[in-house]
Amino acid sequence: MWLGPAITSSASSLCSTVPPERATTTSYSLCNLYFPLASPQHSGEVAGIPYLLQPNFPLLLTNTAFGYAEAVQKELEARFQAIGAPPAFTVLEGDVPSALHALGYRPSATFELCQSHPSHRAFWSEQVPWSEAWSIARILTEAYQVPQWRFPVSQRIGKLLQDPGGQAFVAYLYGEGVGAILVYRGVGLLAGVVPRRWGHGVGAALIGRIDPRPFLRLAGTAAEFPGRVLSRFIRYSLE
Fold it and tell me: Residue 194 — φ and ψ, nearest 5°?
């Protein structure tokens, strides 16, 4: 487990302090959306650049700064390194600062904000309450093949679902949960399908369940989670 200094912050101060003229979709929206899954004690903001840290599990969009400014790069890197996390910056595609490349940062993941659409896949799916956080965490950690993170993931899912803006939907096959998607403030944040059910339409059924809300997916997963791409975000980390 990573350990680090406590940095006092709140969901409102973390992102809404970014001046309106600097509040890009990357820094303002993604940061607010993923804050419930991050560690409030380790997350914060440096000179208008917000960042999230989650030392208990390696969810990519809860371990990154949103946006980039050369003037605060070293300070942000120091805060990541203080808890043993590799520094990372997530920026809107096309807004990549040349300084990141010069310093050895390379794309490590691409996220796509997509528009959902209806699905006719015959999987039963339903909204589940926060008390199902342990089951949802089982599905998602199995989907991403990190079952060892089930306990801390379940804690953050429980917190998210107790927020009025949080929702979770689970897809079932023969009574077993085989896929799940988390929704926060009207956006699908994290979707997963257990590996043995990949390619069977479970993901499409989940996306259809949240239609017409947008959702985020990793690039390369369109076959499982279909949707029209609205914008892309690139996460840069040191090689």
Answer: -60, 140
Decide which of 9 and 163 is more confident. 163
Q: Taking a C-beta distance cutoff of 8 angstroms, is the pair 179, 170 a contact? A: yes
pTM: 0.86
Distance of CA 184 to the CA centre of its chain: 10
Position of tokens 């589940």? 128
pLDDT of 19 above 80: no
**2 pLDDT more than 50:** no
| Residues 103, 74: Cα–Cα separation, whole Å | 11
Please list, in sequence order, all residues whose beta carbon lies within 8 angstroms of the beta carbon of residue 173, skipping any fewer than 6 positions away: 123, 124, 197, 202
d(CA 67, CA 51): 9
What string of DSSP letters covers 156-211? HHHHHHHSTTEEEEEEEETTEEEEEEEEETTEEEEEEE-GGGTTTTHHHHHHHHHT
Helix (H) or strand (E) holding 101: helix 98-102
Please list the alpha-helical segments (H only) found in 11-52: 11-16, 31-34
The single residue listed with the structure tokens 């808890």 is 83
**Secondary structure of the chain: what % helix, strand, coil (to 5)?**
35, 30, 35
In the chain, % of residues over pLDDT 70: 87
Query: Which residues 6+ apart lie within 8 Å of 94 measured at CB?
Result: none
